[in-house]
Amino acid sequence: MKIKKFIGKTEEEAINKAKAELGMSAVIMNTKQIQPSGFFKAFKSGSVEVTAAIDENEYKPTAQETIKSNNPNTGRINLEANDEIDIKSISNTTSSDNDRAVYSAPRPIQQATPIKRPTPVIKASNVVMTDNERITEAEERVKKEDTINGFEKKLDNLQSMLEENLKANSIKEEPDVEAAPSIERQKEGVKMAKMIYNTLLDNEVNERYANILVEEMDKTLNHSSNIELMLSNVYQKMILKFGEPSIITSARKKPKIIFFIGPTGVGKTTTIAKIASKLKIEDGKKISLFTADTYRIAAEDQLRTYANILDTPLTIIYSADELNAAIEKVHDSDFILVDTAGFSHRSIQQKEDTKELINSVSSNVEKEVYLVLSATTKYRDLLEIVDAYKEMTEFKLIFTKLDETSAYGNLFNIKMYTKADMSYVTTGQNVPDDIEVFDTQRIVKRLLGGK
After folding, report:
1. Max Cα separation, the chain?
2. Which residue, 190, 213, 242, sits at the end of a domain?
3. Does 82 fall in a domain?
4. Residue-number span of the structural domain to which 410 is assigned
5. Which end of the chain is less crowded, N or C, counting CB atoms within 10 A of the terminal residue's CB?
6. What letter does residue 169 receive in the DSSP assignment?
7. Is the pLDDT of residue 168 over 50?
8. Are residues 325 and 178 in the same domain?
């Protein structure tokens, strides 16, 4: 395999250089931002370094490289996990222009702008006047800005404040027996509850679940106007509703077979490559890869590229009848990761094929199923997708493409709807870096308007 690095002012320019020299079949392995150095670095612009590779059978060297061919360098690729894998022996790998191969550079994404409710503007000539007061435009704006800034400040200190409240047992399931709150206090509590409610809606939490959270908070706090207590209460309830993430663990008796299911285009194959890299490089596990995706063009080639780089065997499964025999051949593996065909949730035949594949596993083999979903998919479509897969099997949830959205409400919505365990999220296409265990506290804080 031929590996080269290319530098450009932008990522697109560097990739174009790689494609121009190595050909359109070149695989983008990694991208890295290079910051300028030196005394005049403040006046220089940064650059992007792209690492690209291509099968030596497809590569046509330039005249200059032919002269340098006597230099016996062995190609290596760093997976950025403190380990290197020798890939000199990898050959006959292909890449499709229509499929992202390993380490493909993420497409330029326009970061979605968080939805904000417009602030009413009161013109200077239209001053709100009452018998007791006059509120000018400037005064109204300052008042609203103070409220928003105060809200964000509370969110920044949310974690420490929650811990203090829990230690002091300040949040109780039953309210203290006290005199009924004053009318002013009730009004203030309603105002704060509306602010929390609107923040949840802005982050695309479904109205039904936002109402449940606010109603539970109101019952617990009995119209409290303390923003700290209200935020802590909602925060705590959302943490509990998400639950502890469930991750891949070793079976008592190996191998453990793990199926990845989901619709087309959500990044199942790339997610499998990330998880396989983590399990092998960081945990030292023996991995085998299976693919049952015989529908998609070049699906086998894409996964074979990952398998070759990880020096991991790949088996193609054409029918459910072949699965147990294939498992027996790699019985000494710790994990078998199975890439299934992505299909429309309306495709009855493909759905039945995947269901048969999962159910055909011998009862002596421990198995898990992970449903891979995109965080950018519309909520209505997600409901139809999970309904289709719920008919097939139980599953845990992996959400991809968190880097392509700023509203994480669908993660909470689908968790509440399916009651399935959260597991992993992905934030880009770099292998193996752009995957992590679901961080409940960080996601909840984002849903409540924090950073």
Report:
1. 93
2. 242
3. yes
4. 256-439
5. C
6. T
7. no
8. no
